[in-house]
Structures are given as structure tokens and as C-alpha cells.
Amino acid sequence: MIFEVFITFALGGCVFTPSEPERLNDLAEFITRYEVNAFISTPSVTRLISPTKAPTLKFVMIEGEPLAPSDIETWLSQPGVSFFNAY
């Protein structure tokens, strides 16, 4: 987690952490509202986001759990999104 925060700050970015209700109820809306363009999380949390409802995302990194083939297909089918597995 330290690496991700350091890189974000080094590149002039901001770190946003959604509240528990935002994370559980409408994570895609939070991402769109704050124009989040990079998202780093586990596959379980990333599955809560429909890529079409979070159009600002351009970089998605998955870590902490194994990926399912459907996770890869979901994100690689989105134009302009870079998808990385850091597991």
C-alpha cells in the first residue's frame, strides 16, 4: 500500500478513500463524482464496479486475491483502460 500512495503523490495525484457506505452502496458513483482515474483494490471489491458506470477509470490494478478469467475479460474489454494484476 505504501508503494501505491507514494507513486500517486510523486506523480501529483490525490488519494481518495471512500467511506464504508460509499464502498458498499455505489462505488462507481464515488469514482465518477471524484473523477478517479486510477483504482487499486482486490478482485472482490473491483467486482462491485461496472466499468461502464465508472468511465473516468483509466488504470485498474488488482492485488491481494487471485483473479477470475471474467475479471480480466471485464476490464480488458473497456477501451482506454489499462488493467494490471499485481497479485
UniProtKB/TrEMBL annotation:
GO terms for biological process: amino acid activation for nonribosomal peptide biosynthetic process; secondary metabolite biosynthetic process. One of its GO terms (cellular component) is cytoplasm. The keyword Cell division does not apply. The keyword Glycoprotein does not apply. Signal peptide: none annotated. GO terms for molecular function: ligase activity; phosphopantetheine binding. Keywords: Ligase, Phosphopantetheine, Phosphoprotein. InterPro entries: ANL_N_sf. This is Nonribosomal peptide synthetase 8-like protein 1. It comes from Colletotrichum chlorophyti.
